[in-house]
Amino acid sequence: MKKKIGISYSEMLFENYVNWFTAQDLADDIEITVLSYEKNNVQDIYSCDGFVLTGGVDVHPSYYNGSADYVNRPSAFSLQRDRFEENIYRYSQLQQLPVLGICRGMQLVNVLEGGKLVQDLGNGNSQHKKDVIDKQHKVAAVKETFLHTVTGAVDGAVNSAHHQAVHPQAIAPGLLPNVYAADDKTIEGFEFADKTGKGFMLCVQWHPERMIEKEQNPFSQHIKNQFLSAVRNTNMKKLQVVNPATEEIITELTQDSKESLEQKLATLRNHHAKWGAVALAERVKIIQRFSELLEEHKEHLAAVLTSEVGKPLQQSRNEVNGARARIKWLAGNAEKYLSDEVMVEEPGLTEKISYEPLGVICNISAWNYPYLVGTNVFIPALLAGNSVMYKPSEYAVLTGLEIEKLLKQAGVPETAFQVAVGAGAVGEVLLDLPFDGYFFTGSYKTGKYIYERVAPKMVPCQCELGGKDPLYVADDIEDIKGVAAATADGAFYNNGQSCCSVERIYVHEKVYDSYVDEFVKEVASWKKGLPTESGVYIGPLTRKEQLNVLDNQINDAVGKGGKVLAGGKQIPGKGYYFEPTVVVNASHDMLLMKDESFGPVIGIMKVNSDEEAVKLMQDTEYGLTASVYTASRNRAETILGKVDSGTGYWNCCDCVSAALPWSGRKHSGFGSTLSHAGLRGFTRPKAYHLRG
Ligand code: NAD
């Protein structure tokens, strides 16, 4: 894919910046991306390889502790733009990517690095402030600076249109002025004094993009050329985001490096106490605001989610709604379960428990329900006062970045929530870093590995892992058609890619034939196709590799006597499609009944008693959920009581309630999210014995 230059949008003569980069400059390997504070397209920042921070309205004085009222103050500032461009600049530094700051862009970099501005150059400003056209004046570059090397010139002529400037006595520490106005000595450019570990960075006070005869002026042309070559020379590891329905590359994002992750952790660590000190009631409000933003942006969020994981659009909307329902419970109960708890109150003695945050936690997450599994962790973690490093799955990273954007828009500080972009290798780096707790959602294989890696740190490590969830249909059900439809949905919703999907079905022999008949009819009725098409229930799988896993399971089952009543193979063409597949005559020597399928396939077995059903349901290494369909609650509870799983369902399946603990057993993991246990799971209880 092409390298990308992100140019920050400005209302003022923006096309000049874009046009400055000619077709010849860009050739066939660079393209321009507009980074617009109005659109707040933060995710696009992560796909860029270099940045131009443009000119425009004065930076808000709060950025440099300046006076709110000054000569030539603009009628309106744009804090939204300041914040957006701050994101761009901080990101460029984190990833050591090239930055070119122009006019306001230069002033912004100075204040972000800790410098101050001259708020108005005053009467002596005849040199700089635009009249009808830019002011032309001479500059002198400082010899042997990077600017001097780049331009190859000491004396030059530039154009200006500004009334503020870098404060000569308060330029940010670490910045080196490299060019001055010849007459009044205004600082007209800077670079890093120490360039070790830094990317290309030049900032100029003039407008190289709109100079007269800019192609001949080294203070425009050479700077541009050097910036372009710095962009071409970037060598960041990229993560391709692919649409599983079409196999098209949606975008490429720069992955986090060890250095950028260390910096992100340092940011979280250094400011952790501030977020913890925000009153719980205020944290609750911020999280509730996040939920409102999810609702406001639902259509967009659903479209992004569908584009990268392939789930049908309506299911993406359902997921956002589901996350909001969980947030409602968690935020609504935070004060009840996270406030200090007085256990003993008698004359002269109070004994209480205080629920202190763990600190800075790391959340390594899965792709199948990024809003739901994410919400299970980072919402209670933030509510409890923790700071969070969130690593969305590489298959749901755009959604992870949307989440980050909206959390920050809701009021979670930049310093309390950071996203790690990348796949397993980035996860590995996180395991090396010193977090105060690890919260993992994903496969048993990765979970086991993470648990072992984290163990020596002696910090909490929680694992929500896979399942091979059984469902039993007893002989007393009446509405066979209804049960068949509900249980088929439990097995195939989200293409079977749910940790609590029904993965094995046992049916009492008395109702077996009619149940299987109705089940197959239900499966045959589903519309398959592009997940963006209305009414589609079966879209593509998210990961291509899983197609082979399913092929293997079906071939193995058929080889051992299984009979395929529906589907059974991949759907040819673009996209990772597999037919919804029903296998009967299943048995426990088949992979299909033992290994997590995580796809649209189901094995069905006939049983002749509750005892046989329980025995088979128990015959698994996993222990996430189990369901029983029967007319009798008593019968269901008796059966469920004998199955070693974190959740038991009577006449329902594949569902989660925020009020109940979500926890696995055996290879399905340990620890709980959701419920009061899930809120307190992100805290350390401290015992207070108070006498007097
Ligand atoms: P996965 O284990 O492949 O990946 C999960 C996360 O771990 C990803 O972010 C991945 O980048 C990261 N990772 C991979 N290797 C790593 C390493 N060596 N070090 C650190 N991090 C690493 O799982 P997945 O495919 O994303 O998710 C599917 C699995 O998750 C299924 O088994 C499913 O059942 C399970 N799951 C469980 C629950 C639950 O609540 N119990 C919920 C959703 C999904």
Layout: helices, strands, pairs:
Blueprint: E1 3-8, H1 14-20, H2 23-26, E2 30-35, H3 42-45, E3 50-53, H4 79-94, E4 99-102, H5 104-112, E5 117-118, E6 135-141, H6 146-151, E7 155-160, E8 165-166, E9 175-181, E10 187-192, E11 201-204, H7 221-232, E12 238-242, E13 249-254, H8 258-277, H9 280-296, H10 298-309, H11 313-338, E14 341-346, E15 349-357, E16 360-364, H12 370-383, E17 387-391, H13 397-410, E18 417-419, H14 424-432, E19 437-441, H15 444-454, E20 461-464, E21 469-473, H16 480-492, E22 502-508, H17 509-524, E23 527-528, E24 536-538, H18 545-559, E25 563-566, E26 581-584, E27 601-607, H19 610-618, E28 622-623, E29 625-629, H20 633-642, E30 647-650, E31 662-663, E32 665-666, E33 669-670, E34 672-673, H21 675-680, E35 683-691
Parallel strand pairs: 1-2, 1-3, 3-4, 4-11, 16-17, 16-19, 17-18, 19-20, 21-22, 21-29, 22-27, 23-24, 26-27, 29-30
Antiparallel strand pairs: 5-8, 6-7, 6-9, 9-10, 10-11, 12-13, 14-15, 15-35, 20-33, 25-26, 28-32, 31-34
Helix pairs in contact: 9-11, 9-13, 10-11, 10-13, 11-12, 16-17
